[in-house]
Each structure stands twice: as C-alpha cells, then as structure tokens.
TrEMBL record:
Name this protein carries in UniProt: Uncharacterized protein
Amino acid sequence: MTAPTSAAPVTPYATLLGFTRYVDRTGPTKATFVGGLRKQRASRHGFNPHGQFVKALKADVAFHTGGTHLAQVADLVKPRWRPLYEALVPGATTWLHSLGEPAGVDLAQTRDALAMLGDLPVKINPQFGVRYADGRAEAIRLHFDEAPPSEETTLATLHLMARHMDAVLPHAEPVLVDVRRGESHRMPADVKPEQVEQWLAGEAAAFRAIWSTAA
C-alpha cells in the first residue's frame, strides 16, 4: 500500500487588500486574520460582492454620465446585496462629482503588478485609473469598509501603489478613495518612503512567519 501523498504547500501570498487589512490589526488578531487568508487561498474560494458596483462607477467615468449608472446599480443586484449598494452609492456619487465636469475626466486602464516585500508576494491591483483633461492621471483603489481607512491602511496602500506605478499606470498618482464618505486620500507630503518601506518589510516578515505556523 502506498502512503497517501500530502497536499502541496500553500505558499505565502497576499492581495493589496489582504495585506493592508493585516497591517491595520494588532496582537493576536493578526494571526487569526492570516490564518483565514491561508485557508481561503488553500480552498481557492473567494467572492467579490462589489464587482457590479465597480463596473457602474467605471461606466460613469468612461461615458461621462455623472452618476447615472451608480443611481441604477442597487436595483440590478440580488436583494441580499441591495443594502450594501445603497450604502455605497451616495458617497461614490459625491466622489464622482468631485472630479469635476464629467467631460473632462476619462477612464484610464490600470494593470496589476506583483510587489515583493522581502519574500512575500503582494498583488497590487487598483480598480481603475482616471485621466484629466490637463494630462494628470490617478490610479484608484477603493475602500468599501464601514469604518474609514486607518492611517496605517492608507499609508501602506498608497506606498505600495506608488512603488509599482511604472507598471500600474505610468506617471499617475496613487489615490485611496473612501467610498462611503466620498473622500480621496493621497500620500502626505512629509512621509519618508524609506521608513514606510522598513515598516512594511517587518510586517511582511511577520506575515510569512504566521502563515508558516498556521500550516
């Protein structure tokens, strides 16, 4: 009788959302969170409830419709997701209007990138980009949570996007949009990138260590 073969090891990996949520946690909740990510990756299960919402927002930017698609999207999703979408639409519409005249803003294509933080791969995946009539461009990452993004979440998200902007959307500025409040967050002028890099390298090393012990 042959011995049963063991399952292939699940290599450490994080999306930008997963890693920035991890750095926002403290103490034992970090280990619990990483364990959950590891199980999800092993099962390859994952569902994005915001997919149709992002499509509607992108359509309003692309077709210069100023919120028409957002206004309709809550009626198009399954009833279980309707309350979520209804909570998101007002803030997203506020943000859309903050961009200025719809005709002066176009949708820009972003590409995903793979960041290496030490030995930890992190997928950098903004939802889309916007390009203004004056040539400026922004790579947009959306924050959907009920609570506003913390300073740690904001800093980690913007730093990692900026670090790989040549691949994501060349010459663009990274922006984290707090969807529920319709607010844009940009990198503070006084931030020292080398200090952020050192902090994130330490967080990534701890993430890998927790991942290994969760096996």
